[in-house]
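Hi support team,

I submitted a single chain yesterday and got back a structure, but I'm not sure I'm reading the token output correctly. Could someone confirm the output below corresponds to the sequence I sent? I've pasted both exactly as they appear in my results page.

Thanks,
R.
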Amino acid sequence: MQPYELSLTAAADAIRARRLSPLELVDSVLDRIEKTEPHLGAYVTVAAEQARRAAGEAEHEVAQGRYRGPLHGIPMGLKDLIDVRGMATTASSRVRAGHRATADSTVAARLSAAGAILLGKTHTHEFAFGLTTPQTRNAWDSGRVAGGSSGGSAVAVASGTATFALGTDTGGSIRVPAALNGVVGLKPTYGLVPRHGVTSLSWSLDHVGPITRTVEDAALVLTALAGHDPRDPASLSVPVADYRPGAGTDLTGLRIGVPRTYYFDNVHPQVETAVRHAIGQLEALGAQLVEVDIPMTRYIQATQWGLMVPEAGAYHEGSLRTAPGLYQEDVRILLEASELMSAGDYVRAQRSRTLMRAEWARMLEEVDLIVAPSVPMPAVGADEETVTWPDGTAESVSDAYVRLCAPANITGVPALTVPVGHDAAGMPIGMQLLGRPLGEPTLLRVGHAYEQTQPARALATAA
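Hi R., thanks for writing in. Yes, this is the structure output for that exact sequence:
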């Protein structure tokens, strides 16, 4: 096994035991980038020499006994919405041409303090306003979408061109690309991970979180990221936990909600089969399955768009008026549509969110978590714009991919996607775990328990 193939946890163990040096790991990943990047397009920019210098410094620190923890010497990619001092934050848009960040974002600073090594910035759908990331190709099949908007981060992790990465999630933008590329993606509880220094799409829906190869890896990254920052008004003042799950797989006593409504409606049959099989695995580990009805399903799409579009429009109001031609057409149209929405529309969306949060809280009193598909279908072809379901319903690809993820953004509950197999074409399928606010330990415990019953996953084949 080459170093770039190692999970974060395995690489950290090898570095701590002095069986692997940070420089060897970084060089292996950079070589992998050179080989795969022309085919996949995960990165906006790669800072190879900067990464090698940082790896040399990490190697020296480890040799001197100054080991900082499991992220020390581990190479990462950051979605190009996340500020790093002295580097461009382009948001994959011409609007940001010439931009340079003057300070680190909170998450970049925390990862740097933990010893992680930045490889470069990964592509996003322009300003995170989309679910396909057209610049980047799926790590399993370059003719299919990567998912978005954190498509570059997910493809980098899936292809071995980053040991872990950060994404952002406003309507599924961590979980969608993670599911479509066969990796783990975690959207934390709203406010658990600070967003200071991260370009916003929608203030009340935005989250930052890790994309990794294993659930344990995600726990290690979350432990470094979580914690209050007063510069983010939504940041929670809660104790920082050690999110690492235990080694056990016994889920006896855990109540897992299986939706009767919404989450299995208009879902590809191979996705449903794989997810229900994985649910059966959780039951075999001792969990009690409880059927639940998802509340207020008819309002989910309207609430998501009713919050996101006006907030995005407010953020971009100035540049949209002075330089509309610099936006890609799909994003410009969505931003212009925000001007057609009234203050009343936005207030009604906020009221709907308040009611939905209350209903979800009641539902989550009856079960410890919800299990469901992450997305309704595997990655579609890069030129496909709509999907038609067996009942004749036509749906845009973006609406389909956001549909099962949006409830966690609206309510702010944590959500984790875990790979649970592949379809007949070899494309990954993801299962989503949704928990109570600050219920990350439970999600990570269940996801890790499931992973331990499965064979080790290989890197993506398209790379």
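A quick pointer for reading it: The chain is about 40% helix and 15% strand. Let us know if anything else looks off.

Best,
Support desk
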